[in-house]
Amino acid sequence: MNGNSVTDAAEIEGYEAISISEIGRSGVDEPDEEIERSISELEREVCSLRETLQEVQGEMAKLRASVADVDVRIDGILSQWTRHRDDLDDLQSEGHRLLAEKYAGFVEQVLFGLARRSLALTPQGDFGESISRVVQRLCLEIFGRVRPSEARIRRIVKAKSSDALAAHVNNAFRQGVALLSEVNSMKDRPFWDFEFFEGDPINAERQRVWGKSDPETPVLYVVSPAYVAGGVRYCLQRVVTAERT
Fold first, then answer.
1. Range of the domain at 4
2. Is the pLDDT of residue 242 over 90?
3. Which of these, 132, 211, 142, 137, lies nearest to 172 by C-alpha position?
4. Number of C-beta neighbours around residue 130 at 10 A
5. 81-102 confidence digits (pLDDT tens)
6. Which of 67, 100, 158, 201 could form a disulfide with 235 if both were Cys (CB 3.0 to 4.6 A apart)?
7. Calpha distance 55→64 (Å, rounded)
8. Same domain for 218 and 107?
9. SS3 for 16?
10. Mean pLDDT value of segment 20-37
């Protein structure tokens, strides 16, 4: 009995040794090999993707060059097509004429109305002269600056941000900015002509009197500038003249 037990124990130990050895080979080595193979495959895929990306970038560069060439050719065709079209000049002129009419209405109605409302609250001196001076300052703010300011318009008409007059200021400011946006979108961009010489007689080709000013007396100041585009005065200056003596 004892001999057989020793033999069985030895066999068991040998079997366990073999099993552990096999487990070591199949349970440790094989996963390492699988990981290495996976890494190699990923590296090959990455290389392939890089090559594909380089090809795509090359095609995109060719496409951009082709599009740029087409744009140049289209511009040339349109230039030739529009060179002899007089109606394009007519359309530009009509656009300026309509904008000049809108500008004149804005000055005579919106800005004049705002000035009158502001002065009605605190009347002083010559009411008509005071309105002219306020409209002059409003025109300088809206058409004489690169960026008009609603806050500065409120100061011109002495409006507080919380009172009823501030709503009229906001309306005038928004309409003025919208008008400027339309004007600046024109291909032949106009400019606002404020230039004048105090004491000179009225130049009928450049100026019109404002309100009840006397056209036979010298110019004192410009209330609203002229609208000029392409050498054409679509709206004349509005000027105040000296009183007749």
1. 1-84
2. no
3. 142
4. 17
5. 444 444 446 888 899 999 999 9
6. 100
7. 14
8. yes
9. helix
10. 60
Indicate if 35 and 79 belong to the same structural domain: yes
State the Cα torsion 180-182-185-189 to the nearest 10°.
-60
Handedness of CA 177, 179, 172, 232 (dihedral sign): positive
Which among 161, 172, 179 has a CA at the least distance from the CA of 116? Answer: 172
Which tokens sit at 89?
């000049």
Residue 173 one-letter amino acid: F
Contact 133, 156 (CB under 8 A): no
Say yes or no: 47 and 103 in one domain: no
Q: 92 and 69 in one domain?
A: no
Of the three residues 84, 102, 135, the one that is the final residue of a domain is 84
Report how far residue 133's alpha carbon sits from residue 122's, in angstroms, rounded to the nearest whole number: 15
Q: Are residues 162 and 53 in the same domain?
A: no
Per the prediction, the chain carries an average pLDDT of 82
Tokens of 56: 């795509």
* 210, 236 contact by CB (below 8 A): no
3-state SS assignment for residue 238: strand
pTM above 0.85, yes or no: no
Distances (CA, A) of 75 to 36, 61, 90: 58, 21, 21
In what order do the strands lie in the sheet containing 219-224?
207-209, 237-241, 219-224
Together in a domain, 189 and 234: yes
* Nearest to 156, CA basis, from 174, 139, 175, 143: 139
Looking at the fold, whether 43 and 136 belong to one and the same domain comes out as no
